[in-house]
Amino acid sequence: MRILLISLPLLALSSNLSAENFKKFSEIDEPLQSMLEDSVILQDQHDKTLKSLLHEIRLLRHEIQESNKNRKIEEVILKQNHILEKLDQTLNSSIEQSRKR
Fold it and tell me: Are 25 and 12 in contact (CB under 8 A)?
């Protein structure tokens, strides 16, 4: 779009427009050029914001993955502790039964 607006005055000159018509065209072109520049600036800001948000999302995703890993590790440890408690109870019960004999 920017190239089009910049090349329009050249097109106007090459198509043998009168100087008066070219001046009118240039007057219209200036606000359009300004609007286009503002639009490009806003788009750049929008892109930067999106990149920043994507970066934050990636960081959060990584934190969630780490949290899930830690949670899984904690779950495994709890299961191991539960198994060890059962094993301890079974061993204690076996020891008591063998003493009774």
Answer: yes
Q: Is the dihedral of CA 15, 18, 21, 27 positive or negative?
A: positive
In this predicted model, what pLDDT tens digit does every residue of 28-75 receive, in sequence order?
Answer: 677 777 888 888 888 989 999 999 999 999 999 999 999 999 999 999
Distance spanning both ends of the chain, measured CA to CA: 96
Token reading at 23: 């001046």
DSSP state of 71: H
Query: What is the model's pTM?
Result: 0.49
Angle ∠(11,15,20) on CA atoms, nearest 5: 90
For the chain, the C-alpha Rg in angstroms (whole number) is 37
Where do we find the tokens 């019960």?
93
Are residues 33 and 5 in contact, defined by beta-carbon separation less than 8 angstroms?
yes
